[in-house]
Automatic annotation (TrEMBL):
NCBIfam families named among the record's database cross-references: PRK06753.1
TM stretches of this protein: none
Protein name listed in UniProt: Monooxygenase
Organism: Paenibacillus hemerocallicola
MF term (GO), any: monooxygenase activity
Domain FAD-binding stretches: 7-321
Keywords carried by this UniProt record: Monooxygenase, Oxidoreductase
UniProt-listed Pfam families: FAD_binding_3 (PF01494)
Amino acid sequence: MASRKFIVVGGGIAGLCTAIALRNKGFDVDVFEGASRLKESGAGLGVGANALQAMKRLGLGDKLLEKGKVLQAARIVNEKGGLIAKTDSVKVSSLFGTDNITIHRADLLHILAESLPGDGIWTNKKCVSVTQHSGGGVTVGFQDGSTVTGDGLIAADGIRSAIRQQLMPEATPRYAGYTCWRSVVAGVPRGYEATTFTETWGSKGRFGIVPLQGDRVYWFACINAAARDPKFADFRKAALIRHFEGYHSPIRELLEASNDDALLHNDIYDLKPFNRFAFGSIVLVGDAAHATTPNLGQGAGQAMEDAVFLAECLANHSSVEEAYVRFERLRLARTRKIVNTSRTIGKVAQFESKLLCGIRNGLFRAIPARMNVRQLRFLLDVKFDVR
C-alpha cells in the first residue's frame, strides 16, 4: 500500500500540504507546479484553530506558531470605530484546544516547501492533459512534452483549475460582487492593539487590519464593483485614501505607509459548491474543489483539512478510487456550508445603504458574546477521524 505513487498538480498551500500529509503516511508523492518557481508573494492569512490542528497532525504546528502571530481578539467596528461585535480569541483557543494565528503567506509557503525534499517539487510543469487508464492509474501530460504516471492524481491547481475544467467544464468561478486591495506594512500604528484583528464595516466599503509577527500589519480593503470594473483598474494608494476618507484611525495611516508597488488587487471569486470531488483516479482539493470568499478566513484552512482527511482516507483504503470517494463524502457538506456562509457574510458586510448598515450593526450588537463563540464551533471544532 505504501508504495503507491501520487501526482499532485499545483504547488500552492493545498498541493504542498497534501504532499506532506501523503509522505507522512509513506506514499510516494511528487508536486508539479506550472510556474517557474513556487509563488511567495501575497499578504497575510488567518490560520484558525481547526487549521492549526490540521498542521499539528502534519508535524508543522510548532513551526507555524513560531512564525505566526497569536490573536487575542477579533473585532468588527463601524467606520468611526464604534464596536459592532467582538470575539475573545483566548476563550476560543481554550475551547478548541489551540490558538488562532495569522501568518504571512510567504512564511507559510516556506515552511511547507522546506518540509518536502527538493527533488519532490517540479516547477515549469504546466498540466495540459490528463488520461485515466481502464485498469487504474492516471497519466498527466505537461506543456514541455513530458509525462508522468501514477496511481492517483490530486488536482490542487486552484480556483481556475485546468484539471477541473476537463472534468467539469461548466464549473466556472463566480464573482462575489466586490474587489479587494491588500498589502503588508512594516510597523504597528500608534494606539493599535497588535494582537487584535479588526474589520471595519462601512457604507463605502470594508477595511481589515490584521497583525503579523515582526511588527508588521496586513491590511485589506473591499469595495463593491462590477467584475473587472475599469473604474478601479488604476485605483492605487492615493485613490484608496480618498475613498476611505472619514474612516477611523489607523486606516489612513496604514494606507499612507503603503507602497503602490506592493499593492495587490484582485476581484473576489468563489465556486458554487459541487456535488462531487472524486473522479475515478482523480480528486479535487483546496481551491480547485471548494474555493471560498475570504470572509471566514478559511481558504487556507480548508486546504489544510483536505490534506489530513485525504491522507487518512488513502491510508485506510487499498483502493485509490474508494479512498477518494470516502474523502468526498467527508468533505462535501462541510466545505459547502463554509462556502455558502462566507458568501452570505460578504454580502452583509458590503451593505452600502446607511439604513441597512444601521440595522445590521444593531442586530450584530444584540448578539451575546457567548453566541459569537458558539457560532464558531462548526468552523473550529473538527474531528479528523475518518473511520
